[in-house]
Amino acid sequence: MKIIPIILSGGAGTRLWPLSWGDHPKQFLSLVSERTMIQETLLRLKGLELGSPIISCGETHRFMVAQQIGEVMSEVVSTGSTTPTILLEPMAKNTAPAIAAACCAAMKQDKDAVVIVLPSDHVIADVPAFQNAVRVAAANAEQGYLVTFGIVPTFPATGYGYVKAAGTETDGSFTLEKFVEKPCLEKAQEYLASGEYAWNSGMFVFKAAAFLEELKLHNPEMASLATEAFENATVDTDFIRLNKEIFSRIKGDSIDYAVMEKTSKGRVVKLNAGWDDVGSWSALYDISKKDANLNVIKGSDVIALDTTSSYIRGSKRTIATIGLDNIVIVDSDDALLVAAKGKIQDVKKVAEEIKKRS
To answer: Which end of the chain is more exposed for a tag (fewer CB within 10 A), N or C?
Structure first.
Protein backbone atom coordinates (compact mmCIF):
# COMPACT_ATOMS: atom_id res chain seq x y z
CA MET A 1 0.00 0.00 0.00
CA LYS A 2 1.39 3.39 -1.02
CA ILE A 3 0.81 6.36 1.26
CA ILE A 4 0.80 9.86 -0.20
CA PRO A 5 2.15 12.50 2.20
CA ILE A 6 0.27 15.79 2.40
CA ILE A 7 2.44 18.37 4.16
CA LEU A 8 0.82 21.58 5.38
CA SER A 9 3.24 24.50 5.28
CA GLY A 10 1.13 27.59 5.76
CA GLY A 11 2.00 28.64 9.32
CA ALA A 12 3.81 31.81 10.36
CA GLY A 13 5.41 30.51 13.58
CA THR A 14 5.61 33.91 15.28
CA ARG A 15 6.15 32.32 18.71
CA LEU A 16 9.72 31.64 17.55
CA TRP A 17 10.44 35.26 16.68
CA PRO A 18 12.97 36.68 15.77
CA LEU A 19 14.13 33.68 13.70
CA SER A 20 10.67 32.58 12.59
CA TRP A 21 8.97 35.57 11.08
CA GLY A 22 7.22 36.77 7.94
CA ASP A 23 8.78 35.27 4.85
CA HIS A 24 10.88 32.75 6.78
CA PRO A 25 8.70 30.79 9.26
CA LYS A 26 10.00 28.02 11.49
CA GLN A 27 9.35 25.11 9.13
CA PHE A 28 12.15 26.40 6.89
CA LEU A 29 14.66 26.69 9.75
CA SER A 30 17.20 24.15 11.06
CA LEU A 31 16.19 24.22 14.72
CA VAL A 32 16.73 20.67 15.99
CA SER A 33 19.07 19.14 13.39
CA GLU A 34 21.07 20.06 10.32
CA ARG A 35 17.90 19.63 8.26
CA THR A 36 15.04 22.09 8.26
CA MET A 37 11.80 21.14 9.96
CA ILE A 38 9.90 20.65 6.70
CA GLN A 39 12.69 18.39 5.45
CA GLU A 40 12.57 16.37 8.69
CA THR A 41 8.80 16.01 8.26
CA LEU A 42 9.31 14.21 4.95
CA LEU A 43 12.47 12.36 5.96
CA ARG A 44 10.80 10.64 8.91
CA LEU A 45 8.62 8.79 6.38
CA LYS A 46 11.69 7.24 4.73
CA GLY A 47 11.27 3.46 4.55
CA LEU A 48 7.50 3.55 4.06
CA GLU A 49 6.02 2.90 0.62
CA LEU A 50 5.22 6.42 -0.52
CA GLY A 51 3.60 8.17 -3.43
CA SER A 52 4.78 11.57 -4.59
CA PRO A 53 4.36 14.12 -1.77
CA ILE A 54 1.92 17.03 -1.94
CA ILE A 55 2.88 20.23 -0.17
CA SER A 56 0.31 22.95 0.46
CA CYS A 57 1.71 26.44 1.01
CA GLY A 58 1.27 30.11 0.20
CA GLU A 59 2.66 32.03 -2.75
CA THR A 60 5.42 33.67 -0.67
CA HIS A 61 7.04 30.41 0.37
CA ARG A 62 6.80 28.48 -2.89
CA PHE A 63 10.49 28.66 -3.82
CA MET A 64 11.69 27.66 -0.35
CA VAL A 65 9.32 24.66 -0.44
CA ALA A 66 10.52 23.64 -3.89
CA GLN A 67 14.19 23.93 -2.91
CA GLN A 68 14.04 22.30 0.51
CA ILE A 69 11.73 19.44 -0.43
CA GLY A 70 13.65 18.90 -3.67
CA GLU A 71 16.87 18.43 -1.69
CA VAL A 72 15.51 15.36 0.15
CA MET A 73 13.08 13.83 -2.34
CA SER A 74 15.53 11.24 -3.67
CA GLU A 75 16.24 10.04 -0.12
CA VAL A 76 12.58 9.37 0.60
CA VAL A 77 10.78 8.36 -2.60
CA SER A 78 12.62 5.43 -4.18
CA THR A 79 10.13 4.52 -6.92
CA GLY A 80 7.78 6.46 -9.15
CA SER A 81 7.81 10.23 -9.52
CA THR A 82 10.35 12.12 -7.41
CA THR A 83 8.75 15.45 -8.28
CA PRO A 84 6.54 16.80 -5.48
CA THR A 85 3.19 18.46 -6.12
CA ILE A 86 3.24 21.99 -4.70
CA LEU A 87 -0.23 23.47 -4.24
CA LEU A 88 -0.38 27.23 -3.80
CA GLU A 89 -3.20 28.55 -1.63
CA PRO A 90 -4.27 32.03 -2.81
CA MET A 91 -5.02 33.01 0.79
CA ALA A 92 -5.14 31.31 4.19
CA LYS A 93 -8.42 29.47 4.78
CA ASN A 94 -7.33 27.17 7.62
CA THR A 95 -6.58 23.47 7.28
CA ALA A 96 -9.81 21.88 5.99
CA PRO A 97 -9.89 23.57 2.53
CA ALA A 98 -6.14 23.05 2.06
CA ILE A 99 -6.49 19.34 2.87
CA ALA A 100 -9.53 19.01 0.60
CA ALA A 101 -7.65 20.46 -2.37
CA ALA A 102 -4.63 18.26 -1.59
CA CYS A 103 -6.90 15.20 -1.49
CA CYS A 104 -8.09 16.09 -4.99
CA ALA A 105 -4.45 16.16 -6.09
CA ALA A 106 -3.79 12.82 -4.38
CA MET A 107 -6.67 11.21 -6.26
CA LYS A 108 -5.01 12.27 -9.51
CA GLN A 109 -2.16 9.95 -8.52
CA ASP A 110 -4.45 7.17 -7.30
CA LYS A 111 -8.25 7.31 -6.97
CA ASP A 112 -7.98 5.01 -3.93
CA ALA A 113 -5.10 6.95 -2.38
CA VAL A 114 -4.40 6.73 1.34
CA VAL A 115 -2.89 10.02 2.52
CA ILE A 116 -1.08 11.10 5.66
CA VAL A 117 -1.60 14.74 6.61
CA LEU A 118 1.33 16.27 8.48
CA PRO A 119 2.07 19.77 9.75
CA SER A 120 5.52 20.82 8.59
CA ASP A 121 6.87 22.01 11.93
CA HIS A 122 6.70 19.13 14.41
CA VAL A 123 9.47 17.13 16.08
CA ILE A 124 9.27 13.35 16.54
CA ALA A 125 12.20 11.73 18.32
CA ASP A 126 11.31 8.03 17.90
CA VAL A 127 10.89 7.58 14.14
CA PRO A 128 10.44 3.75 14.21
CA ALA A 129 7.57 4.10 16.71
CA PHE A 130 6.04 6.81 14.54
CA GLN A 131 6.28 4.66 11.41
CA ASN A 132 4.69 1.69 13.19
CA ALA A 133 1.78 3.95 14.18
CA VAL A 134 1.50 5.15 10.56
CA ARG A 135 1.20 1.56 9.35
CA VAL A 136 -1.55 0.86 11.88
CA ALA A 137 -3.38 4.04 10.89
CA ALA A 138 -3.07 3.23 7.18
CA ALA A 139 -4.59 -0.23 7.73
CA ASN A 140 -7.53 1.43 9.51
CA ALA A 141 -7.82 3.97 6.69
CA GLU A 142 -8.08 1.13 4.17
CA GLN A 143 -11.26 0.12 5.99
CA GLY A 144 -12.75 3.59 5.44
CA TYR A 145 -11.90 5.18 8.78
CA LEU A 146 -10.57 8.71 9.31
CA VAL A 147 -7.68 8.33 11.74
CA THR A 148 -6.00 10.89 13.95
CA PHE A 149 -2.91 10.35 16.08
CA GLY A 150 -3.44 11.00 19.78
CA ILE A 151 -0.19 11.82 21.56
CA VAL A 152 0.10 9.90 24.83
CA PRO A 153 0.33 12.76 27.37
CA THR A 154 3.34 12.94 29.67
CA PHE A 155 2.08 15.81 31.83
CA PRO A 156 -1.19 17.76 32.28
CA ALA A 157 -0.63 20.19 29.41
CA THR A 158 -2.88 23.22 29.18
CA GLY A 159 -1.43 24.39 25.88
CA TYR A 160 -2.77 21.52 23.76
CA GLY A 161 -6.22 20.41 22.71
CA TYR A 162 -7.18 16.81 23.52
CA VAL A 163 -8.98 13.89 21.88
CA LYS A 164 -10.93 11.28 23.82
CA ALA A 165 -10.28 7.70 22.72
CA ALA A 166 -13.23 5.53 23.76
CA GLY A 167 -13.90 1.81 23.93
CA THR A 168 -11.41 -1.02 23.63
CA GLU A 169 -8.50 -1.11 21.23
CA THR A 170 -9.40 -2.74 17.91
CA ASP A 171 -6.87 -3.20 15.12
CA GLY A 172 -4.53 -0.87 16.99
CA SER A 173 -7.00 2.01 17.26
CA PHE A 174 -9.80 3.37 19.43
CA THR A 175 -13.11 5.05 18.65
CA LEU A 176 -12.75 8.81 18.37
CA GLU A 177 -15.35 10.05 20.84
CA LYS A 178 -14.68 13.78 20.90
CA PHE A 179 -12.25 16.67 20.67
CA VAL A 180 -11.86 19.07 23.58
CA GLU A 181 -10.30 22.53 23.62
CA LYS A 182 -7.22 23.51 25.62
CA PRO A 183 -8.25 22.80 29.24
CA CYS A 184 -7.53 24.48 32.54
CA LEU A 185 -4.95 22.75 34.74
CA GLU A 186 -7.57 20.92 36.84
CA LYS A 187 -9.22 19.46 33.73
CA ALA A 188 -5.85 18.56 32.22
CA GLN A 189 -4.99 16.65 35.39
CA GLU A 190 -8.30 14.78 35.13
CA TYR A 191 -7.61 13.92 31.50
CA LEU A 192 -4.14 12.62 32.33
CA ALA A 193 -5.41 10.49 35.23
CA SER A 194 -8.24 8.94 33.18
CA GLY A 195 -5.97 7.46 30.52
CA GLU A 196 -8.71 8.07 27.95
CA TYR A 197 -7.45 11.40 26.62
CA ALA A 198 -4.52 12.17 24.36
CA TRP A 199 -3.07 15.38 22.98
CA ASN A 200 -4.46 16.45 19.65
CA SER A 201 -1.53 16.06 17.24
CA GLY A 202 -3.02 17.61 14.11
CA MET A 203 -1.83 14.56 12.10
CA PHE A 204 -4.25 12.36 10.16
CA VAL A 205 -4.44 9.31 7.91
CA PHE A 206 -7.39 8.47 5.65
CA LYS A 207 -8.38 7.71 2.11
CA ALA A 208 -8.55 10.94 0.15
CA ALA A 209 -11.95 9.95 -1.22
CA ALA A 210 -13.27 9.12 2.27
CA PHE A 211 -12.27 12.54 3.57
CA LEU A 212 -13.91 14.33 0.65
CA GLU A 213 -17.08 12.29 1.16
CA GLU A 214 -17.23 13.25 4.84
CA LEU A 215 -16.53 16.89 4.04
CA LYS A 216 -19.31 16.82 1.44
CA LEU A 217 -21.65 15.38 4.07
CA HIS A 218 -20.84 17.89 6.81
CA ASN A 219 -19.81 20.97 4.81
CA PRO A 220 -20.99 20.55 1.21
CA GLU A 221 -20.20 24.13 0.22
CA MET A 222 -16.56 23.86 1.28
CA ALA A 223 -16.21 20.48 -0.42
CA SER A 224 -17.65 21.83 -3.65
CA LEU A 225 -15.59 25.03 -3.71
CA ALA A 226 -12.30 23.34 -2.74
CA THR A 227 -12.79 20.74 -5.47
CA GLU A 228 -13.74 23.41 -8.00
CA ALA A 229 -10.71 25.54 -7.03
CA PHE A 230 -8.45 22.56 -7.73
CA GLU A 231 -10.17 21.60 -10.98
CA ASN A 232 -9.79 25.20 -12.21
CA ALA A 233 -6.19 25.60 -11.00
CA THR A 234 -3.44 26.86 -13.27
CA VAL A 235 -0.07 25.16 -13.66
CA ASP A 236 2.97 27.42 -13.42
CA THR A 237 6.16 25.40 -13.99
CA ASP A 238 6.56 23.44 -10.72
CA PHE A 239 3.50 24.92 -9.00
CA ILE A 240 -0.26 24.41 -9.10
CA ARG A 241 -2.14 27.61 -8.29
CA LEU A 242 -5.62 27.00 -6.89
CA ASN A 243 -8.21 29.23 -8.51
CA LYS A 244 -8.17 32.45 -6.49
CA GLU A 245 -11.71 33.62 -7.19
CA ILE A 246 -13.26 30.27 -6.27
CA PHE A 247 -10.99 29.62 -3.28
CA SER A 248 -11.74 33.08 -1.86
CA ARG A 249 -15.42 32.14 -1.51
CA ILE A 250 -14.64 29.36 0.97
CA LYS A 251 -15.49 30.03 4.60
CA GLY A 252 -12.31 28.79 6.21
CA ASP A 253 -12.34 26.19 8.99
CA SER A 254 -10.04 23.64 10.59
CA ILE A 255 -10.22 19.95 9.78
CA ASP A 256 -11.24 19.33 13.40
CA TYR A 257 -14.32 21.53 13.24
CA ALA A 258 -15.23 20.86 9.62
CA VAL A 259 -14.99 17.05 9.68
CA MET A 260 -13.33 15.22 12.55
CA GLU A 261 -15.67 16.44 15.32
CA LYS A 262 -18.70 15.44 13.24
CA THR A 263 -17.74 12.22 11.53
CA SER A 264 -18.93 8.83 12.75
CA LYS A 265 -15.88 7.21 11.15
CA GLY A 266 -13.19 8.70 13.39
CA ARG A 267 -10.52 6.54 14.99
CA VAL A 268 -7.56 7.34 17.25
CA VAL A 269 -4.15 5.68 17.07
CA LYS A 270 -2.18 6.46 20.21
CA LEU A 271 1.35 7.66 19.58
CA ASN A 272 4.20 7.66 22.07
CA ALA A 273 7.20 8.76 20.02
CA GLY A 274 8.71 11.87 21.60
CA TRP A 275 6.39 14.28 19.79
CA ASP A 276 6.57 18.07 20.20
CA ASP A 277 5.07 20.89 18.17
CA VAL A 278 7.96 23.23 19.12
CA GLY A 279 5.55 26.03 19.91
CA SER A 280 8.00 28.24 21.79
CA TRP A 281 11.66 28.77 22.62
CA SER A 282 11.10 27.14 26.01
CA ALA A 283 9.70 24.06 24.25
CA LEU A 284 12.80 23.95 22.06
CA TYR A 285 14.92 24.22 25.21
CA ASP A 286 13.06 21.26 26.73
CA ILE A 287 13.80 18.91 23.82
CA SER A 288 17.40 20.00 23.24
CA LYS A 289 20.59 18.53 24.69
CA LYS A 290 21.90 20.51 27.69
CA ASP A 291 25.42 21.11 28.92
CA ALA A 292 26.69 20.66 32.49
CA ASN A 293 25.01 23.94 33.54
CA LEU A 294 21.68 22.90 31.98
CA ASN A 295 22.17 25.44 29.22
CA VAL A 296 21.33 24.95 25.56
CA ILE A 297 23.85 26.94 23.53
CA LYS A 298 23.65 27.24 19.75
CA GLY A 299 26.39 29.11 17.94
CA SER A 300 30.14 29.02 18.39
CA ASP A 301 30.65 32.55 19.73
CA VAL A 302 28.76 32.37 23.03
CA ILE A 303 30.37 32.97 26.44
CA ALA A 304 28.09 31.97 29.32
CA LEU A 305 29.58 32.73 32.75
CA ASP A 306 27.68 31.75 35.89
CA THR A 307 24.65 31.17 33.66
CA THR A 308 22.27 28.26 34.15
CA SER A 309 19.10 26.67 32.70
CA SER A 310 19.08 29.02 29.72
CA TYR A 311 18.63 28.90 25.95
CA ILE A 312 21.18 31.02 24.04
CA ARG A 313 21.25 31.06 20.27
CA GLY A 314 23.92 33.15 18.63
CA SER A 315 24.25 34.42 15.11
CA LYS A 316 27.19 36.48 13.81
CA ARG A 317 28.28 38.46 16.85
CA THR A 318 29.58 37.41 20.25
CA ILE A 319 27.02 36.90 23.00
CA ALA A 320 28.24 37.06 26.62
CA THR A 321 26.13 36.44 29.73
CA ILE A 322 27.06 36.73 33.40
CA GLY A 323 25.02 35.58 36.39
CA LEU A 324 21.78 34.72 34.62
CA ASP A 325 19.28 31.90 35.14
CA ASN A 326 16.26 30.71 33.15
CA ILE A 327 16.59 33.18 30.31
CA VAL A 328 16.23 32.98 26.54
CA ILE A 329 18.50 34.91 24.18
CA VAL A 330 18.03 34.59 20.44
CA ASP A 331 20.10 36.72 18.07
CA SER A 332 19.26 37.15 14.40
CA ASP A 333 20.56 39.38 11.62
CA ASP A 334 18.12 42.17 12.41
CA ALA A 335 16.72 41.58 15.91
CA LEU A 336 17.68 40.42 19.38
CA LEU A 337 15.34 38.70 21.85
CA VAL A 338 16.12 38.63 25.57
CA ALA A 339 13.40 37.18 27.80
CA ALA A 340 12.72 35.31 31.01
CA LYS A 341 11.97 31.73 30.06
CA GLY A 342 8.74 31.81 32.05
CA LYS A 343 7.48 34.75 29.97
CA ILE A 344 8.56 33.48 26.57
CA GLN A 345 4.99 32.84 25.35
CA ASP A 346 4.57 36.62 25.20
CA VAL A 347 7.02 36.82 22.29
CA LYS A 348 3.99 36.58 20.02
CA LYS A 349 2.93 39.98 21.34
CA VAL A 350 6.29 41.39 20.27
CA ALA A 351 5.78 40.04 16.76
CA GLU A 352 2.30 41.59 16.67
CA GLU A 353 3.66 44.96 17.82
CA ILE A 354 6.37 44.91 15.16
CA LYS A 355 3.74 44.12 12.53
CA LYS A 356 1.70 47.14 13.66
CA ARG A 357 4.72 49.45 13.55
CA SER A 358 5.74 48.35 10.07
So the answer is: C
**Number of residues that this document lists for the chain:** 358
Q: What is the pLDDT of residues 88-134, one digit of tens each?
A: 999 999 999 999 999 999 999 999 999 999 999 999 999 999 999 99
Q: What is the pLDDT of residues 243-277, one digit of tens each?
A: 999 999 999 999 999 999 999 999 999 999 999 98
Amino acid residing at 90: P
Q: Which residues contact 153 (CB under 8 A, 6 or more apart)?
A: 162, 191, 192, 197, 198, 199
State how far the alpha carbon of 141 is from the alpha carbons of 7, 77, 97, 206, in Å: 18, 21, 20, 5
Q: Measured at the alpha carbon of residue 67, what is the angle toward residues 50 and 331, in degrees to the nearest 5?
A: 115
Q: Which residues have a Cβ under 8 Å from the Cβ of 220 and sit 6 or more positions away?
A: none
**Amino acid found at 64:** M
